[in-house]
Amino acid sequence: MKCDNCGSENTFVRDCQYIFSIQGKEVSIICKKRFCNDCKSEIYDEDLEKETLKKAVRKYNELYGLSSAKILSLRTSYNLSQELFSKVIGCAKKTLVSYEKGTSTPNDNYSIILNTLIRKPKLILDFIEANRDMYTKREYNKIMRRLPYKK
Q: What is the pLDDT of residues 71-122, one digit of tens each?
């Protein structure tokens, strides 16, 4: 990696405290940053930045949101695939995958939906009916067969 300021390739990595603002809330984390050993300026390192963002999202979810483990546990408690569960709650499968991996945090609407289902799991039946136009008859039947709750 090369320094943009002085051109040196002599770099080092150190831990730094960084404060992120995520959905209006501050999250403080210790992350790794790369610096030039010669002029001491910070050097952009894509891999370190990606890891920093993941760490910030995980910390936010632990402090204010829903952990990826809780979301995964909720979905699996219903015996539903990511595709079917995402249709039931009204989000894209890719969005649900990012929540379960902890690479993004649910927005306010999905936080409300997920927290509601965690507190009152049987409400899934209401969500299924409310979003019935999101799945085919075959998918609907599959969802209803897999659920531990029945109408």
A: 999 999 999 999 999 999 999 999 999 999 988 888 889 989 999 999 999 9
Chain mean position to CA 42: 28
Print the domain residue range for 95.
Answer: 68-146
Torsion on CA atoms 47, 103, 91, 109, rounded to nearest 10: -130
Whether the Cβ atoms of residue 61 and residue 67 lie closer than 8 Å to each other:
yes
| DSSP letter, residue 147 | -
Question: What are the angstrom distances between the C-alpha of 27 and each of 20, 55, 147?
Answer: 5, 10, 37
Q: Is 74 found in the same domain as 139?
A: yes
What Rg, from alpha-carbon coordinates, does the chain have?
A: 21
Whether 52 and 107 map to the same domain: the answer is no
Q: Is residue 87 domain-shared with residue 127, that is, in the same domain?
A: yes
